[in-house]
């Protein structure tokens, strides 16, 4: 139970993103004419954040399942790298929780997991599982609530997805201050800029992530991560 309470505290910065974007996704699906059960299933099975908002006009325009599946894969392919980065840690917990954790890492939870500093008296693997499970449940509840409340919501949700951008900016600044080395951050920034200029805004993300991951894997045994930055061994 202590691990769960700690995980909930870690999730507090994510609440606005999950709740408001989830409400918007559920509201849009309901307004498009989909029954409550389909809103619930899309949240529980798709679990793709902004993709659930993007897929509404695709479905209402008559796009087929292959188109939806390909679009979802292209938009969320970066999550593959998130799971790869934590696969060894998740494997320790075993059972059904292992694949669940690998499949439920999102942009927001990945940022929290990267900066996680677990107290010595708590089980880190259980904290990680509780964080991912709590955020998953929060998303499903938020989407369903959006469908239930519909247009009775007293707030304008236009542009609320920008809260995710603000959250990532805050996380980057915080990790830059706390990190023992800035090599991954600089590598990621340079890779993103180069591929953005070469491929454009629609296609740069996946190649940038792939190159960053490959370079970091290559440097893993050549650098010692310690106070004051990396050094050759």
Task: Please give a structural write-up.
The model is unreliable at 225-233 (pLDDT under 50). Strand 1 (223-224) and strand 2 form a beta hairpin. Helix content is 71%, strand content 2%. The chain has 2 domains: 2-160, no CATH class; 179-233, no CATH class. Strands 1-2 form a two-stranded antiparallel sheet. Helix 2 packs parallel to helix 9, helix 3 packs antiparallel against helix 9 (124-149) and helix 4 (50-60) packs antiparallel against helix 5. The chain has helices spanning 2-11, 15-31, 36-46, 50-60, 65-76, 78-91, 97-103, 107-114, 124-149, 162-178, 183-199, 205-219, and strands spanning 223-224, 231-232. By secondary structure, the protein is mostly helical. The protein starts with a helix and ends with a strand. The longest helix has 26 residues, at 124-149.
List the defining traits of the structure above.
single chain, 2 domains, two-stranded antiparallel sheet, mainly alpha, globular, 233 residues
